[in-house]
Amino acid sequence: MHQTSFSLRLPLAGDRGRYANTKKGGIAMNPLTDEKIIGTLGELLVQLRLFQYGVQAAPPLQDSGNDLIAVRGETFKAIQVKTTATDVKLQIPQDRLYHILAFVRLRREGDNLLLDSSEIYIIEKEAIDKKEIDPNDLNKYLISQELVDHLFPPQ
Prior knowledge:
Blueprint: E1 7-9, H1 16-20, H2 34-52, E2 56-58, E3 68-72, E4 75-84, E5 100-105, E6 108-109, E7 112-114, E8 119-124, H3 125-129, H4 145-151
Parallel strand pairs: 4-5
Antiparallel strand pairs: 1-7, 2-3, 3-4, 5-8, 6-7
């Protein structure tokens, strides 16, 4: 399978003026923080990859604590997405209700995010609750058709 490389320049805090200024030199009404940009990119990547594997996912109309609601056939799942642009290990959210935790590790070269090289791990809440996961070894949770079919059985 041929993959095209897609990169995106991540505005860093020092570049904020370049992205937040308006034509008149003022500050944009609602500038985006680095955390908001990184988190949104992670959510969008999860949506795209799930769609690639036959699952539709979208953010809920109201922020209910879940980032995405995903559906395939008659299976509905709430997804919590955690995204990092560094090599930090998985941070498991506490006191959140969800079915699947999606952990996105964005890859970068300098200021460029390499979205096609970014890693997405999808982990059932049940595995987290049973402490079956090793945050240092997430390879078995790397998104794949087989894993998606397990979480969202084809009809």
